[in-house]
Every structure is written in structure tokens, then in C-alpha cells.
Amino acid sequence: MLLHGVVLRTALPLSRRLFSSIGSHDMSKAISKLNQEMESVFGEPPPSSLSGSIDNQSMTQDLKLSTVEMDDKKSFAGLTHIGSKGEAQMVDVSLKNISRRVAIARGKVILGHKVFDLVSANQMGKGDVLSVAKLAGICGAKQTSNLIPLCHNINLTHVRVDLALNPQDFSVEIEGEAASDGKTGVEMEALTAVTVASLTVYDMCKAASKNIQITDIRLERKTGGKSGDWSRDK
User: Fold this and answer.
1) Which of 124, 160, 161, 207 makes the best surface tag, with the fewest CB within 10 Å?
2) Would you report the helix, strand and coil content of the chain in percent, each value rounded to 5?
3) 126 CB contacts (<8 Å, ≥6 apart)?
4) Euclidean distance between the first and final Cα of the chain, in Å?
5) Active site residue 203
6) What string of H, E and C letters represents the secondary structure of 25-65?
7) Rounded CA separation 88/148 (Å)
8) pLDDT, average across residues 119-134
9) Helix (H) or strand (E) holding 96
10) pLDDT at residue 231 above 50?
11) Which residue in the list 72, 117, 162, 203 is annotated as catalytic?
């Protein structure tokens, strides 16, 4: 009985490890192999009750667990920052190839007629709105990994932020570009550049109006990486 108790405690964990990596059509072969290994270790085959227990209990439980794990992995297959159980994770890019990566993002700050005229004439109390926002956007791109928790710390080779006044809707149109030679994309850097520049425009102008709107921040296009080139126009 003591030997059978040892066999039971040894066999069940071993069976779980063995069954978790195989399909149902290989179960009989796996059980036979397990019985042979146990006989070589303990000098006798496992009792029939143990074999039945493994067949009917452990195998059923392992199949259910494997099905759940597979379903979980399928659920989050397209979300690289989410693990198989739904937890947040940082993507491992160590095996990715180094390539030239560029991303361009755009956004708009709607000022309204009054504020637009003040910005155009460079008469805002805090100073030159467009110049300060341009510098803020560049600095923002370089701080992306500090602002967005799961972003990688990227060595940027270039950041460009352009701001232009649009008299048609009394807005400031902003375009940001980020580039890097690395293993992961720079979309977040481009988007962060535009976002920080937009927030800076708001900050520079908020004393004149609280009705300013930041809108339409989006990625326009990107190049490089495993997914290749992408453009919003296509």
C-alpha cells in the first residue's frame, strides 16, 4: 500500500505534465509510456485502479485545462500587450530584426476666432504659442516611454513637429514625425509628439478662452517592421 501511495503521488503530477502537451488521439500511447516508466522505477506496473484514475480524472481535468488555456490565448492573440490570462505585459522585442521605422501622426486644436487672431498676431500673454508648442512636442516624443507604461525606451534618430494656422476653421493643425533604426515601431512617439504639442497650445491659450478643443489626433502612416507599411489613405 505504501508503494502504491508513492506511485499515486508521483504519477498524477507526471501525467498532468505529459497530457498537457499532447492531443486526445495520443492519450493511449502516452498512458502506456507512463506505465512503462513507472514499472521501470518501482519494479511493478501501476495498479489498475490507479490507471483508471489517471484515465478518468487526471486526463479529463488536463483536457479541460488545456481547452481553457487555448481559449484564453485565442482571446488575446491580437493584443501583444496582454498575456494569456489577461494580465498586462511588455512585449519582448529581442528576436525582432532591426529596421528603419518612421511614423507620422496628426492632430488639430480648434481655437475659435478670438484666440486664433491673438495667436496669429503673436499677442498671447505667455509668448509665441507655435514655437513653444513645437519644442514641447519634440520633448514629448523623447519622453514617450516615461508616459506610456508599456512602451519601449527607443533611441530616436529624428523627431519633427510642424504647426500651421488654418483660417478656415480657426485652428492649429499639427503634424508629428518620429524615426528610429530599431526593433520596434515609433507610432507612439509620433502620437505623443502631437498630443503634447496640442496640450501646450491649449495651455498657452487657455487664459483667453476655455472653449478650445483638441481633436482628431490619429496615426497617418508608418513604415518598417514586421507589419510593413501602412497608410490611413489606403
Assistant:
1) 207
2) 45, 20, 30
3) 132, 203, 204, 207
4) 72
5) yes
6) HHHHHHHHHHHHHHHHHHCCCCCHHHHHHHHHHHHHHHHHH
7) 13
8) 97
9) none
10) yes
11) 203
| Radius of gyration, alpha carbons of the chain | 30
Query: In whole angstroms, what is the distance from residue 165 CA to residue 130 CA?
Result: 9
Q: Which residues contact 79 (CB under 8 A, 6 or more apart)?
A: none
What value does the mean pLDDT of the chain take?
80
- The letter for the amino acid at 125 is G
Is the model's pTM score more than 0.90? Answer: no
CB 85 within 8 A of CB 72: yes
The burial class, CB within 10 Å (0-12 / 13-18 / 19+), for 201 is buried
The whole-number average pLDDT for the span 218-225 is 94
How big is the CA angle at 177 (ends 102 and 118), to the nearest 5 degrees?
Answer: 170
Structural contact between residues 224 and 99, judged by C-beta atoms closer than 8 angstroms? yes
Q: How far apart are CA 15 and CA 19, in angstroms?
A: 6
User: Per-residue pLDDT tens for 129-174?
Assistant: 999 999 999 999 999 999 999 888 999 999 999 999 999 999 999 9
Maximum CA extent, the chain = 95
Helix boundaries (H) for 99-186: 113-120, 129-142, 144-147
Partner residues linked to 222 by β-bridges: 103, 230
Give the C-alpha separation, 64 to 68, whole Å.
Answer: 6
Per-residue pLDDT, averaged over 217-228, amounts to: 92
- As given in the structure block, the three cell numbers for residue 48 are 489498475
| Joined grid coordinates for residue 39 | 514499472
